[in-house]
Amino acid sequence: MTEELHVVLGATGAIGKAVAAELDARGHRVRTVSRGAATGPHHVQADITTTDGAIAACQGAAVVYQCAQPRYERWVAEFPALIRTVLAGVEAAGAKLVMADNLYVYGPVDGPMTEDLPHAAANPKGRVRAEVDELILDAHRSGRIRATLGRASDYYGPSGVNTILGPTVFAAALAGKTARWVGDLDQPHTVAYLPDIAAGLATLGERAEADGRGWHLPAAEAITGREFLGLVRTAAGGKPKIAGLGRGAQRLIGLFNPTVRELGETWYQRDRPFIADDSAFQKAFGPVKVTPHDEGVATTLDWFRHNAA
Question: Where does the record place the NAD-dependent epimerase/dehydratase domain (predicted)?
Fold first, then answer.
């Protein structure tokens, strides 16, 4: 086990759990942090929305993985302030920051997304994610900290219960309900498997040449909703019905579900190809093996079968 301390913020969330497990498997000394009660011997309870809490959480760290985030509908109101306190904690520790990021910064694009695209999103969530990224990269450029960002698309996997694919696809299929893909069933979409995201973020934390920029994390090939739900149906025994959830249904459900309502702002991710190009990561750090979708789907269904209420 390495002596350097790797700290995972938001460690009770799906990405945080996966990152902590990956770091442990790689032999790193790990501290997990969340606002809730302790979940293990190396867990720290801290409120990282405060400067004091973030400094305490990051104390002694060599690398900090920022996997915490506000509720989806609270991103615009709360994300920049959260990142400012995290930056204060990372700076006080003299640590490197690895940000678990997404693809909102680009807005609608034609063709596969690459890291050199402008951060041109015009919607509120895209703009705030661009603001957050700039706060982090400004801190890196000014020498306050070292930082890198790992971007992933929609994800699925063990513990992925608060995702667009968790309840509506895996839990629904196992409950004998219709498994629903949010968006056009026949548009290719990059979806990432949680352990692959965690492996990518851990690599960014280990490699100095990752610093100072964003990277698209490796994922299996883009897949249509119809193809993905077909894999779920096969792995679940061929019984679940499958369907798409279109814009009209999203608007209707959004009348009483704030999270679904917020999806309308980024519907361009759902009605056309949404593909992330990970070739820069593969060239810099690879070749990186990713989990085939059929294997990831089977493992995720098994987790939901034994863990989801």
Answer: 7-211
| HSE of 229, CA atoms in CB hemisphere, 13 A | 27
Confidence band (pLDDT; 50, 70, 90) for 297? Answer: very high
What's the rounded Cα separation, in Å, for the pair 214 and 59? 25
Q: Is the pTM of this model over 0.90?
A: yes
> How many CB atoms neighbour CB 2 within 10 A?
12
pLDDT band, residue 233 (cuts 50/70/90): very high
Return d(Cα 74, Cα 101) in angstroms, integer: 16
Strand 188-189 relative to strand 223-224: parallel, antiparallel, unpaired?
antiparallel
Model confidence over 136-179: pLDDT tens digits?
999 999 999 999 999 999 999 999 998 889 988 999 999 999 99
Q: How confident is the model over 23-37, as a mean pLDDT?
A: 93
Mean pLDDT over 174-195 rounds to 95
Domain spans of the chain, in order of start: 5-156+193-219
Q: What's the token pair of residue 261?
A: 């309502």
